[in-house]
Amino acid sequence: MLAKKEIMKQENSPEAILTTEKLVAGYGETKIIDEISVKFYRGKINALIGTNGAGCSTLLKAIAGIIPVISGKILFEGKKLTGTQEERYKKGICFVPERKAIFERLSVKENLELVGRKKNYDEIFALFPDLKKKWKLPAWKLSGGQKQMIAISQGILSDKKLLLIDNPVKGLYKKIAEDLLLFLKRLAKSKNAAIVLKADKIDTVERIAGTFYFLNAGKIIKGGNNAC
């Protein structure tokens, strides 16, 4: 386990789908993350670990095109990444925020169909049985945890090369959260996709993540690989 051994220095790999180099991002002249350099890898869960205010969510938003980059650069599949969130989505990057603004007046079915009407929902129903039970109900009638299930399902169904998920297990029951994390690990491997998860503490993702970065006050304080 990562907690029981020294974190190894991350090596360069041809499987790294996204790299940031001394990335600084924030609002105006206010830096929220400062000179962040990371590599996210295909076929793995990549974890960003830090409490609120550490900079993890800001890094995800900068990659997704939501927060402006002040300096440094982002490389996606070896090319400099620019453009709006919509443009980056089309390139293969999907961001699922901690509290996604799903359409409250639409049913569960309609919310998921926004990603695509011809999708196979069997895996989603197996992962989140509640969504099958609430299939025709408007989202506003669901609990916070169930709304989170819709948001994560939309990310999964997007079938993108790089999936960025901010605090995926927040609001979920422990068993559902554990099943979700194991599912995401299998998904990354089967699709050869890079999945990046933000977590408040190492315990949440230690058993499933292959790459870790610990952030504090907008800077990386430690990073490396795990035997996953």
Task: Please tell me about this protein's structure.
- The protein has 228 residues and is α/β, with parallel strands linked by helices.
- It has a single domain (2-99, 160-225), classed as P-loop containing nucleotide triphosphate hydrolases (Rossmann fold, 3-Layer(aba) Sandwich).
- The protein contains seven helices and ten strands.
- Strands 6-7-8-3-9-10 form a six-stranded mixed beta sheet, sandwiched between helices.
- It is globular.
- The relative contact order is 0.22.
Please give a handful of descriptors for the protein shown.
228 residues, Rossmann fold, four-stranded antiparallel sheet, disordered N terminus, six-stranded mixed sheet
- The number of domains is 1
- Low-pLDDT stretches are 1-14
Kindly report the spatial arrangement of strands forming the biggest sheet: 6-7-8-3-9-10
| Estimated share of beta-strand residues | 25-35%
Q: Which helices and strands occur, and which strands form pairs?
A:
Blueprint: E1 16-27, E2 30-41, E3 44-49, H1 56-64, E4 69-76, E5 79-80, H2 85-91, E6 93-96, H3 108-113, H4 122-127, H5 129-133, H6 144-158, E7 162-166, H7 174-191, E8 194-199, E9 211-216, E10 219-225
Parallel strand pairs: 3-8, 3-9, 6-7, 7-8
Antiparallel strand pairs: 1-2, 1-4, 4-5, 9-10
